Amino acid sequence: MDQTAWWKRAIVYQIYPLSFKDSNHDGIGDLPGIISELDYLQKLGVDVIWLSPVYRSPMDDNGYDIADYYQIDPIFGTLDDMKRLLTEVHKRKMRLIMDLVINHTSDEHIWFKESRKDVHSPYRDYYLWRKEPTAVDSIFGGSAWTLDPQTNMYYFHLFSKRQPDLNWHHQPLRQAIYDMVNWWLDLGIDGFRLDVIDLIGKDIDKMQFADGPYLNTYLKELYDTCFKGRDIMTVGEMPGLSIERAREITGGKHPFLNMVFQFAHVGLDEVQGQGKWALRQLDVNEFKHTFEKLQHAMHHGGWNSLFLSNHDQPRVVSRYGSEHYRKASAKMLATILYGMQGTPYIYQGEEIGMTGIKMPIENYRDLETRQIYTILQEKGWKEEDIMRSIYAKSRDNSRTPFQWNDHEYAGFSMHEPWLQVNPNYKTLNAETDRSDRDGVYPYYQELIKLRKSHRIFDEGDFQLIFEDHPKLFAYKRSYQGQTVLIIGSFSDLPITLDLTDYPFSKILLSNDHSVKLAQHMTIPPYYAAIII
Ligand code: TEU
Ligand code: CA
After folding, report:
1. CB distance 255 to 249 below 8 Å
2. Which ligand sits nearest to residue 73's alpha carbon?
3. Which of 222, 232, 233 is nearest to 197 (CA)?
4. Domains in the chain: ranges and CATH
5. Residues 441-497: pLDDT tens digits?
6. 520-523 and 495-498 as β-strands: parallel, antiparallel, unpaired?
7. What spacing in Å lies between the alpha carbon of 118 and ligand 1's midpoint?
8. What DSSP assignment string belongs to 42-79?
9. pLDDT, tens digit, 9 for 90 and up, residues 359-389
10. Annotated active-site residue in 61, 107, 195, 270
11. Would the pTM count as exceeding 0.90?
């Protein structure tokens, strides 16, 4: 492997700043709070921190609506805090990447304020204005067009109406973005996670949005103007990109980005074509075959990012694991993910097995949840069905404050937090978990160490085993004559495995030490093991 590609061997940890740690006790997480917990991350084995947006923002979409790219929002701290964070991260031999939200801005960005004033404004073409709306829905529900009374024209927004889309076809806008990106890179940050970057090449008049006709052109320009020649890491969030295109963009002739987030495996608990609120049971076979495709496609050329959770997705234990077998299933999910090829991502709290939450509707803060609640009501959904979907899929599931200890507000803050703490914090928190021999955090530490000490995890090829088993996700990795088996059970019941056909000598790691390796072995619910 190319040794300069350090990001291939990195473990990335995503911090959602609002909910990580509050230092000044106003109920909102902040940069000094993050600085105070860097040792916690270092001990876990983290190499790179991805910080969700901390720029100045009205927080309509929790910072994914940026009003000033050059400033830190006062709720998080100051630019000096940011610089201090960077220094402290680097001191610990870790790196820091920022979130880059350049498909849209906040409606409070000066560009938009100027743009909307008058059709002749020099900023008019920074955004997308039309006399008539087209039949496009925003991703959060409702029309993607909003009429602005000031000039009596409609502006385009794929997310909330407070997040107008930027017009990437306008060269001055692109240049303004590149200047800003270079400014942050010159400040010393180590790269970016690029928010919905597959949308910047869209052609709205031709109704082409994700992976639009101009995507390669603009990505290439961004790469040439900002990324080229710098020792950084870039990961593009690309919900609408095919596997083939992901491979092209990360590994083809022009690798514009180091890796992308693919979402094929994420929508498998949804009725296809009906959006995220129409629930269905996960089919483990479909799940593992989706990963198989990615593993094979990216094995030669291209690079995968491995993730199950982020700030938009519900907690994976509650979603694909089991709250009843919480610790076992949290470890199992980590094991099958970390056994694959790619760069693994941990979303804050995943490493202690945090779970989803059920709250009365008025406690939800996420604009998507609040919006969808009304929309589903209007569509005639029954209250209990709406709430069932929200419990399962609301983004607030993963945004509740980090559970540090069993003190009031889970040690996140001494003030009532901006979003309710999960009531299970008394027993489920980092302090308890880390002092538990059976804890999830200690397991992650071991898993990360193991992964880093065997090249087979970086280089080996991937083949599913027990391929049609409806409750097993198992595969082997092979590299230079060596084979590793990775086994994960999604079953509430024991399963008997026949390992006669596979080479094995010992268990390198497992979530249940009472299980002994044998040709015929019976594994308990949510068992996970790495066998060599
Ligand atoms: O998300 C983009 C996206 O398309 C989805 O992940 C979407 O938010 C989700 O499916 C809705 O349920 C990114 C950010 O990660 C998200 O937090 C922002 O809200 C969004 O872009 C707009 O910036
Ligand atoms: Ca604070």
Report:
1. yes
2. 2
3. 222
4. 6-104+171-446 (3.20.20.80), 110-156 (3.90.400.10), 460-531 (2.60.40.1180)
5. 999 999 999 999 999 999 999 999 999 999 999 999 999 999 999 999 999 999 999
6. antiparallel
7. 30
8. HHHT--EEEEPP-EE---TTTTSS-SEEEEE-TTT--H
9. 999 999 999 999 999 999 999 999 999 999 9
10. 195
11. yes
